[in-house]
Amino acid sequence: MSNVALADQLEHTRAALVLASASQTEVPPEGAILLLLKRGKMLTLNRTGAWIVARLLENELTSGSIPAFFAQNSNISPEQANTDIETFLTQLSQHIH
User: Fold this and answer.
1) Which of 3, 10, 27, 42 could disulfide-link to 62, CB 3.0 to 4.6 Å?
2) What is the pLDDT along the chain (97 residues), one digit of tens a residue?
3) Are strands 32-36 and 41-45 parallel, antiparallel or unpaired?
4) Closest CA to 36 of 12, 60, 56
5) Is 37 exposed, middle or buried (0-12, 13-18, 19+ CB in 10 A)?
6) Which residues of 23-32 are buried (b: 16+ CB within 10 A; e: fewer)?
7) CA nearest 65: which of 44, 73, 91?
């Protein structure tokens, strides 16, 4: 799924990421809540999921660049990062629809 398509879907559903943090710029260890206002849905995200959604909403990273970021900054292979991120983005997209 392209970054533009997922970002557009999030915007279309009037998505809002709610962070339980005083700074509102860093994702807290507890994760976050993603409100899909037009859908009347609320999704809980762990810290990693919240970080990914925040980067997509702010257009800081594309869905294609996220696996490379995780592979470079964690102890997982590029292949595993790609599989994990693709699975997460697919599941997120299914909840948005």
Assistant:
1) 3
2) 454 566 666 666 666 666 554 445 567 777 888 888 777 888 889 988 988 888 888 888 888 889 998 899 888 999 999 999 999 999 988 887 7
3) antiparallel
4) 12
5) exposed
6) eeeebeeebb
7) 73
What's the sign of the alpha-carbon dihedral 70, 77, 91, 3?
Answer: positive
At 17, give phi and psi (nearest 5°).
Answer: -95, 120
C-alpha to C-alpha distance for 21 and 50, rounded to whole angstroms:
12
Can you give the pLDDT at residue 63? 81
Q: Are 43 and 10 in contact (CB under 8 A)?
A: no
Distance CA 19, CA 36 (A): 14
The DSSP bridge partners found for residue 15 are 36
- The two three-digit tokens of residue 15, written as one number: 């998505």
* Count of CB atoms situated within 10 Å of the CB of 64: 12
